[in-house]
Neprosin PEP catalytic domain-containing protein
Amino acid sequence: MALSLQLLLVLCMCLLCHKVDARNHSHQKRLQRFSRSQKFESVLLMRDNEFDCVDIYKQPAFQHSMLKNHKIQLSPTFKTATTQSRPSKTWKDFKGKNMSIGCPPGKVPIHRGNMMHQTNSTHFVNQFPGYAKLHANLLDTNKETTYHGGYAEINICKVSGVEKGQYSLAQVYAHSDAAKDLDIIKVGWGVDQDGCYNVVCPGFVQVSSELAFGAVMTPNPKGLVSESYVYIGIEQDHITGHWWFVSGKNPIGYWPKELLPHISNGAAKIRFGGETASSLDNTSPPMGNGILPEGHNSNSCFFAGLRIMDSEFHIQEIKPEDITVYSDTNPHCYGLLYEGYQGELFRQSFFFGGPGGDCGV
């Protein structure tokens, strides 16, 4: 069965210490090889016949009972001047070869499958299968403070071996205090045939007429999908309180604050990394490209240019003393290798992933 990588958004509303070593030269060489070999053609392919241009006021977001009288915020009050480690070419890739024009003003591209699933949906929780094995390898903020954003450049990796009833994701997270009721936003790429992503469950208000969620990420003509990246930013508007998804300097849409009461004044944590899940009778799927980040010359997937927006709404590079590596399974399944600052091109970055398998519950 053919599976595809997709750009995913997740809205969830639901009841280790690590030694940081000095920068390693072989690690640097691997990153330099990556930068020289990047190919950006056709990273995201969106086929015209799979998407409809829907009136912005008739998009699935407004099926949500709390958004019946919601007034759309067409643009954030902040300037999307998020600094990146290198010039972004992902916005061109987001559009895709076959949707380079996008939708006309006042309309947004919606995947027909999303519209069908959303229309047939009876309740939010029905969109999530009963995953019993959940695992994550993450870089986790550990300061007791408030965050208003998180940013990363995520390596797009080819994932194989993900079956129905499983998922494998690479994401930036913003969420509330785990000791209380959880509100969680996740944005990234992944493989999943089930679940409540993108606009399948109402809540995310899209304003971009060009980017279509659920778009398939396909290898460029030379098959170098692992040598591509996507820029992800989650940023809270300090005036309206809405949480925006931005790609580079492009605002894509937002989660209204009324849907996220526990992070309406900011998030307790920002996290970066991979997540997998499977049913109880199945093994855990691969994470990243399935390669463990062993040694200093890893060929694993990676995150780069890690940043947060602090309690004063200032964008800051993460600091090693303010983060912790989190892993909830054995090191033969998944791993995360963080070595701090990796030069001007990649800044704060880490490798992650692994083959999965019998990883426990």
About this structure: The helical segments are 25-37, 90-95, 112-120, 343-346. Confidence is low (pLDDT under 50) at residues 11-48, 83-100, 115-128, 219-226. The two ends are 26 Å apart (CA to CA). DSSP finds four helices and 19 strands in the chain.
